[in-house]
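anyone else get weird line breaks when pasting these?? whatever heres mine. first is seq + tokens for prot A
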Amino acid sequence: MQRAIIIDDERLARNELKKLLQEFPEVEVIGEAANANEGIEKIESLNPDLVFLDIQMPGKSGFDMLTQIEKAPHVIFVTAYDEYALKAFEVNALDYLMKPVEPKRLADALLKVRQKDEEEMLSYTNRGILHENDQVFVKDGERCWFVKLSDVRLFESVGNYAKVFFGNNKPLILKSLNALEERLDDKVFFRANRKHIINLRKIDKIEPYFNGGLLLDLIGGEKIEVSRRQAVKFKEMMSL
């Protein structure tokens, strides 16, 4: 059973979607919201598996809302944007439904949800540790991504922001490295020094470095120094 929330500023659009979803017994609509702030509250209190989200809303957009959520559930965008405009956002969302929503397209989108669930059993508890199978939403200017934490090889401190390294992308998020360190699973993510948190699974090579430190080559080509103090901890963890 998929526990779903509908977030759309148009009451008629919400009602229409709820009516269409009655044909899909595997989806239970557990809440709805008329704007981004209400949507954030509902997601945090109800921990849905699935969110049907309008992009264009007064105040914050659907994209803006997602940047404020710690851990992203499955998202299906429901929007009046045309296909070409959507491509510009580069969001690898689960699916987009154009308004007015067609039952066949809704069925296809829900099939994708089921397939995604079968691929990876994600936990959607909103508080607690962020694990490598969890996905986060990252927005940098007009570009947006859903990023699985296992695909992130490095976080780099840039003042109050952190640069997130995945694929060829390095967007900034408004999170300090200390805040990230508290939330990330320390079995996978390691604080190498004051400026960097690395994904241990993305290490390509380990070399000795001066003053008892270490130098790590990451799969993406980055070279990260492990400070002398952290090198002791790193060696214990990796049984070196």
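and prot B, same format (seq, then tokens)
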Amino acid sequence: MTQQHAATALLQVALRRRLLSMKEALSLRHVLAGCDANPQAIHQRLAHNPAQVSSETVQALRDLLPTPSQEHIGIYRRLALLGRGASGQTWLGVGDRGLTVLKTLDAELVPNAHEFITTLAPLIGGDHLYLVNYIAVESGSDGAITIIQHYRSGRDAAERFHVKGEASEARALTILRHAAKGLAQLHHLNVTHGNLKPQNLLLDSDGSVALSDFACAANINGPRSEWTPLRLQHMAFAAPETGAAQPRSGPAADIYALGCIGYWLLSGEPPFPGTPERQALQHAGADRPDVRIKAPGVSDITAKTLLKAMQIDPAARYTNARAFVHSLERNLEMLKRPQNNSDKNGQQKEGVSSLMLSEPD
């Protein structure tokens, strides 16, 4: 690990969380040059505030650094806090393979550590193109589980939206296609994601997408977690069966969530806005929303694809993630075709309109 890892990691995280301007980050980079790799040395340097950054910003930066007791987990070292969520804390860290992401789950989320680690075993050490691959899973003396995964540059879909707003239909379909391929890979390993949301779709600088955050993952044929999406306050993209009195989940729930994310990518809103409780009610019984109401430029065929993915009855959705992939790929191909579908005699050519009558698997 180079001496600048800790300082660079801190500034990267601060920029990502919009705690700093680029000008401030460059100023602090100069200030922190030569700091020891130990985050505690950065604590001390920031306390003197030689870059004339506001005291509030300095405190926010210091809050991102680990305390001495937090710094090490096995052979890995925490560098800066990426975020806190309902399931735990996520850190940018470093190990013998370079930069990593370390997610520490709250102990109550994983009552059976052995069972959870067994569920994640197929993801450890793999090389899956559309999944963020896991390096290891560590179990602490306090019962907390820490998942160590490869670090991927870029930003998640929520961050992309904050910068660029709604996606074009072609870009949205590309993101969904990659994510659906990730689901197909995950389900092939007999694992369901269980917590799909825009923050868990990582977009690399080359445009590729990978699914991340398998904190709520479960074996397709095994017992389900008692942590429902409603308790996690993630109802904006959760299938109705996952928020029922007796929660059920599975591959069909992942497909539903991805359909909701597609609606959000194109419209800028979840299909059912409101409080988590109101969202749960609407997911379970409201008419399915047509994305063309919010985004009139979206093609009929893509609107029907999302409607099929978001059906209340799991059996009415796509039969599997691969079928969803095929539909998205067909839609992308349709977008590439010439927009004029009439020949010289005014007869309609075979094209988009001829496929709008149905939305096949």
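btw re prot B: The radius of gyration is 22 Å. Residues 68-151 form a domain with the Phosphorylase Kinase; domain 1 fold (CATH 3.30.200.20).
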